[in-house]
Amino acid sequence: MSHILPTATESEEEERCARYAVLPVGSFEQHGNHLPLITDTVIACAISSELVSAYNVFMLPPVTISCSHEHGAWRGTVSISSRTLQAVIDDVYASATSSGYRALVLVNAHGGNYVLSNIVQEGSANGKSLALFPAKDDWNEARRVGNLATTDHEDMHAGELETSILLHSNPELVTDGYQAADCIADDRRHLLTVGMQKYTSSGVIGRPSLASAEKGKAVLDALAESFVGVLEILDPLYNEKQT
Fold first, then answer.
1. C-alpha distances in Å from residue 149, one per residue of 14, 32, 47, 135, 192
2. Do the Cβ atoms of 109 and 26 come closer than 8 Å?
3. Distance (Å, rounded) from C-alpha 59 to C-alpha 161?
4. Which of 36, 39, 37 is CA-nearest to residue 78?
5. Cβ contacts of residue 104 below 8 Å, gap of 6+?
6. Read out DSSP for 22-52?
7. Which residues are registered as beta bridge partners of 108?
8. Which of 36, 44, 114, 176 is the most exposed place for a label (fewest CB within 10 A)?
9. Are strands 130-133 and 103-108 parallel, antiparallel or unpaired?
10. CA 69, 3, 72: angle at the middle one, nearest 5?
11. Helix axes 213-226, 39-54, angle to 10 degrees
12. What confidence tens digit (pLDDT) does each residue in 130-175 have?
C-alpha cells in the first residue's frame, strides 16, 4: 500500500531543504461500489508522492474533506463549505511560507473544488506564490500518454482514470466489480442544480471497465513530467538552478 500520509522526519526535511510545499486536496465522497470514499485523497497523495520523488518539494498531509455537495445524496459523503476550504488554504499558505517555503502548490484531485481556482487566481494577483495542479491540459495529456480510451467529460467520476490510478497505487482499495460498473451520462448540464443523483443511480459516471494498473502508472508518470512547468512559473530561473 502506498503511503497516503507523508512519513518524513524533521531531520529528513531539513536535509532536503525544499523550496516549495505541495498540499494534496482530496475529498470524502462516494465513488460507486468499487472505490472508497477516500478515493480523491488517495489520488491527490499519489500524485504528490510522485512529485516528491521527482523534484525537491515538501509534501504536506492532505485535506481530506472538501466541497462534495453534488454527491450529498449518497451515504458517507461529507462536505465542508467553500468558505471553510478557502480559510484552510489561507492558513496553510501563511504557515508554510512563514516556515520558509517559497510557494504552495495545491494538488487537487476533486473536480468539485471550484473555489481552489479562485483562491489561486486572487492570491496570485495579490502577491501570493500559489499554483494549482494538475490543470485540465495536464490531465488531458496524461490521458493521452496513458492510452485512456475515454475523455475527461465522458469519464467524470469513478471511471477509467480514477480506477486505473488506484489499481496502480493502492490496488487493495479497489473492489472487484468495477469491470461491470460503467455508466454514461454525457448530458449533465444541470448537475450543479440537481446533483449527481439525477444522472447516475450507482454514483459512477464513466467507464471503469477499461481501467488498468498500467494506465494508472502512465498517468502518474505523465503528471510528474508536466509538473516541471509549474516550477518554471514559480521560479523563472528554475532550469538554470538545476544545471
1. 43, 20, 21, 20, 26
2. yes
3. 23
4. 37
5. 20, 21, 22, 23, 89, 92, 93, 96, 97, 129, 130, 131
6. EEEE--B--BTBTB-TTHHHHHHHHHHHHHH
7. 25
8. 176
9. parallel
10. 10
11. 50
12. 999 999 999 999 999 999 999 999 999 999 999 999 999 999 999 9
- How high is the pLDDT of residue 235? 87
Distance, in Å, from the CA atom of 204 to the CA atom of 239, rounded to the nearest integer, reads: 41
Give burial (CB, 10 Å; 0-12/13-18/19+) of 235: middle
Residues 27 and 63: beta-carbon distance below 8 Å? no
Q: Classify burial at 17, counting beta carbons within 10 Å of its beta carbon; exposed 0-12, middle 13-18, buried 19 or more.
A: exposed
27 with 66: CB under 8 angstroms? yes
Question: CA 17 to CA 92: how far, in whole Å?
Answer: 18
Q: Identify any residues that bridge with 24 across adjacent strands, giving them in sequence order.
A: 107
DSSP 143-192: HHHTT-SS-TTTS-BSSHHHHHHHHHH-GGGPPTTGGG--B-----TTHH
Cβ contact 55:227 at 8 Å: yes
Chain centroid to CA 17: how far?
24
Strand partners, 183: 206
Q: Grid coordinates representing 148?
A: 485512456
Strand order of the sheet with strand 20-25?
57-59, 20-25, 103-108, 130-133
Model confidence at 46: pLDDT above 60: yes
Q: What is the pTM of this model?
A: 0.96
Query: What is the rounded CA–CA span in Å between residue 194 and residue 125?
Result: 33
Q: Bridge partners of 78?
A: 28
DSSP 128: -
